Structure formats: C-alpha cells, structure tokens
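Reply to dn_fold:

You asked what the input looked like. This is it:
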Amino acid sequence: MEAMLQKMAKQLASMDEASLMALWDTYHSRVKQFEPTHSWEEACIVFGLIQTVRWKNQLFNDLWSEQKEAGRTSDQGEQKHEEEPVKVQENDEAPNAERGKVIQFQSRGTR
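and this is what came back:
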C-alpha cells in the first residue's frame, strides 16, 4: 500500500500546478453535486489530490520565502545557522509544542 502511495505522490509531483488547476472547476462542480455513487467518490479523491498539490506548492513557497528572508536577515549581520529548518509558530498555551502554520487557500482569481 505504501509503495503505491509513494508512486502516486511521485506522479503527482511531476505534474505542474497549472495543468492540474485547469481541472479544478470541473471537479469542484462534480463534488458540489453530491451523488451516492463511486463516480462521485472518485471525483472527490481527484479534487482532493488537486487541492493537495496546490497546498503543497503554497506551503513550499511560503517556507522557502521565510527561509530566504531569514538568510537575508542573517546576511545583514546576524548569526546564520546553516541547515537549520524554518520554525513554525509555537502554541501560546503549550510553550514547548510546535504547531503547523495554517496557510489560507487563495481563490484562483487572487493569486
């Protein structure tokens, strides 16, 4: 099962977001019109995969931007820590726990 998922991930990663986004409206419309069918379930999965690639690209761009900004700051005189990953925002209620950053999906027209 894991090997199949890894293969699917590699195939999806090889596709560009623009090509996938060309299908977004089609699958969004199909998913909005619920039908208790296998076809509807498959459309949901395809739509989820399209959204996942979009989310992955937004996350990548956001983290890369933060990393580049951290590098720019460190180039201006602050100490640079090589190979240190970008840290996520911490939970105020649990100071030692790290939480993921929520990235809002932008509508297609505002990107």
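The two ends are 35 Å apart (CA to CA).
Hope that clears it up.
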